[in-house]
Amino acid sequence: MQFSEEQGEGNLIDSYQPGNLVINGVTYQQSLVIDRSGFESWPVRLATEISGETLQLAFERKPDVIIIGTGEKQYFPPADIHLPMLQFGIGIEIMDSAAAARTYNVLVSEGRSVVAAIIV
């Protein structure tokens, strides 16, 4: 899915397709944690692998919101992943990866402090 070109600072997602995530013109074929200032590989291949431990990479960036892209279909991980976020006032949104990529771009363009953890 190709997204319209956004004007803004930081890392924006150009497009998402199962198996491919394009950020700033470069294609990545692994799951990533991304925010305005950078991104790194996320060692999650399946939505069933999402846990408080695997979300630590996103949590450490101290965003206002964490968006979790669960792959081609929306999958709700165990409820206990919400507790650390709630304790520190971090919102959490769970959606399929295409929706997560679009939502991330919108929030970044609004200047929000957001991190996306996206399964490719």
Walkthrough of the structure:
- The structure is a single chain.
- The protein has one domain: MTH938-like (Hypothetical Protein Mth938, Chain: A, 3-Layer(aba) Sandwich), CATH 3.40.1230.
- The chain has 3 helices and 8 strands.
- It has helices at 56-59, 82-87, 97-109; strands at residues 13-17, 20-23, 26-28, 32-35, 38-41, 65-69, 91-95, 114-118.
- Strand 4 (32-35) and strand 5 form a beta hairpin.
- The protein is globular and about 35 Å long.
**Strand neighbour order, sheet with most strands:** 5-4-8-6-7
What is the strand tally? 8
Q: Gap between N and C termini, in Å? A: 13 Å
- Helix-strand pattern, N to C? EEEEEHEHEHE
The third-level CATH topology is Hypothetical Protein Mth938, Chain: A
Total count of helical runs of at least 4 residues: 3
Summed over residues and divided by their number, the pLDDT gives a mean of 91
- Strand proportion, as a percent range, falls in 25-35%
Rg from alpha-carbon coordinates? 13 Å
Please state the structural category.
Answer: alpha/beta
Which of globular, elongated, flat, extended, rod-shaped describes the shape? globular
Helix content: 10-25%
Tell me about the largest β-sheet.
5 strands, mixed
Domains, number: 1
Name of the CATH superfamily? MTH938-like
CATH class: Alpha Beta
Low-confidence stretches: 1-7
> Which architecture per CATH?
3-Layer(aba) Sandwich
Question: Which characteristics define this entry?
Answer:
three-stranded antiparallel β-sheet, disordered N terminus, 19% helix, Hypothetical Protein Mth938, Chain: A, single chain, globular, 3 helices, alpha/beta, 120 residues
